[in-house]
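INPUT
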Amino acid sequence: MISLKKLLPGLSLLAFLAVWQGLSVYLHSNTLPSPQQVAVVFLQGCQSGQLPYHLGVTLLRLVISFSIAMLLGCAIGIVLGRNKKLDAFFDNWLVIFLNVPALVTIILCYVWFGLVESAAILAVVVNKLPNVIVTIREGTRALDRDLLEMARCYHFSRRKTLVHVIWPQLHPFVMGATRSGLALIWKIILVVELLGRSNGMGYQLHLFFQLFDVANILAYTIAFVAVIQLIELLILKPLDRKSQRWRR
Amino acid sequence: MTPVHIHINSKIYPTAQKPTIANLDLSLEAGEFICLVGASGCGKTTLLNIIAGLDTDYDGEISVGSQHTAPKIGYIFQNPRLLPWRTVRENIELVLDKQQSPELIAPLLEVMQLTEVQHAYPERLSLGMSRRVSIIRAFAVDPDVLLMDEPFVSLDAPTARQVRELLLKLWQQRPHTVLFVTHDLREAIALADRLVFLSAGPMNVICEITVPIARSERNNESTVEAFRQQLLNEYPAIKQLL
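OUTPUT
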């Protein structure tokens, strides 16, 4: 017999759809189409190939910018966490970059480098990078000194120390940066696409906004949220489980 | 088996008023088991960290075997310092040289009675078992010198005795040079070839005493206790260290 606890997520989703349906019937307005209308628009978008194409373009930008931001952020975060002098030197830079509004970075990148793909990616990376650096730096500061001493005493190479001693301790911080990164980056990418690209979800949403096409806006949003959920379920959660298997 | 020579002119911590160690000279013969006995906080762990190369901020010289290569150190810390995300076997394999075969681990696990838990993670082990894993790890590197920093502290008496006996069994099979820190005089007498008593503030050698009891007699508690009483009577200064 299926327990109530397992049924709750499904029931909650059904309740959400019911409220949405009720509101759309009550308002009877184009500003809030019913779930059924959105589903029809979603299927039409899939059949025409428009939705998968623009979703794919945005996802490609997300993967590239996310990978660059995470790799660079982890490397810089570890270095700053391990080197007090460098950390003291760059700390103010981090505070500045953390507080520059995303929109300003995007506009400046487009003004300085033109409305090109690399400027779009750079704008996203510059927005996400400081968050990753700060998170990983805090993780590096919290590293267990006893284990690092053990590694030194037994002449672990730098690579062995990083892989077997440092990285497993940083894992929760990296996962935190990954989850917050995915949530942040895809929102920034939409703005980047809205302001300076001729394809992708942001560009399409801008188009639908001008046409006041709320059904398509919701269909694209649901598609993207579903993809992010799939990434969480198929990649992040299994990774988490694998890396935490040593815990009781 | 490797001889060790320690000469420390001075070791001062940055915030301290006076040196923790001053003018300390100590030599260990190859394969010798020495117990350092001193009061808590006198600088015994600092000395071990200097020998292990973990503390390089001192004035002096440490010589372990030939000076051509970095000495191989086996360090059994007070806290076992096992990597919690690696199994018992992986924790040991990680310290091996590329030239060393992982097959050498099996007999060590057997002597320490850990074969059955070799694929378990450290969180599932008792403290006594974790200590035994850290002992195997230290022996596995085939060290020039074995450093042991109160490895039986916070173990209950029967477990401490069991681990001590297993340690001795392993050491008799592989007689490395050992520097063992403790402030338990009975434990020191049961283990050491030579006892070195250390003063505090700054740390220095008060006296060195060779244990005259044969190894086969060390399990006899009354023999150990009689020698302990004899030491306390002959060297009253020792009482302040315990």
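end of record. Chain A touches chain B through 17 residues (CB under 8 Å).
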